[in-house]
Amino acid sequence: MGKEGFGPHGNEFKYEDPEFRVTDEVRRAFDDTGFIIVRGLMDSDEIGKIKKSLEEYGLVEKYSYGVPDHEGREPRVLLWSYCGNDVLGLVPRCEKVASTCEKLLGGDELYHYHTKIMMKDAKKGGSFEWHQDYGYWYKNGNLKPDLMSLFLAVDPCVKENGGLQVLVGSHKAGRVDHNFDGGQQGADKERVEHLKKVYDHFYVNLQPGDGLLFHCNLLHSSGPNDSEQRRWAFNCSYNKRNNNPVKKHHHPLYNKLDKVSNNAIRECENFCEPEGKEFIDPATDETVKAGSKPGES
Ligand SMILES: O=C(O)CCC(=O)C(=O)O
Q: DSSP code of 74?
């Protein structure tokens, strides 16, 4: 007997040390709903190390930028290609993330496409408009929607502080056209309104360490942060090796993902190694119109 998922859509599972097994039930839940939630994917030590890496070494101050929503409010993004050997680089490389995504997408080899830190400051962080990640990635020359992401809560990510919202099963609706809405690419609004009548609109509630693994055609968004609580999340994305983009752009073409064991983050004392990572200059990214740099807003 495989494990049954819990939660309102039967697609939530608990991480069981030392690994997460992608059973037929897990795979079916992902295929049906377009995402799964793994509670406790990272433990408090691992999340503590991710937080320390982001809070104490100046990456956010140096490289992040705002991405205005339709009202001009800004969530902030820190975005890089190539993993590196530090704590932040080991997250997309570790088996429980990389191999889980590989199995969810059917077993073909994946490579790391990019990692983003998604930040909403208390009281002022903006929204992310309804979109599919493939809405952007299609424009980057990825011929097939064979990509996916992990959204890992670093802080609590709940409705009050602008947590994630999804249309459950909407990955089956195919690619929707995306156009600029503020500084972000949003899915065609009329189409989204129709799709909201077909697919359940679900507010995801994640605690630090919980991960949502989702298909690149899943429609998702998140509201503004009017609360007193900061909302940071770690978001890494993968592409299939055999879906190598046909055009050179600001994210990498195929490069081998060097996987590490599930203990690697716990054992790692390298908190920040900017060398080797390529931090994206938003001026090279045609799919966003960046807003302010830290200290400017
Ligand atoms: O951070 C968020 O709320 C949204 C993240 C997102 O939409 C994305 O990474 O594609």
A: -
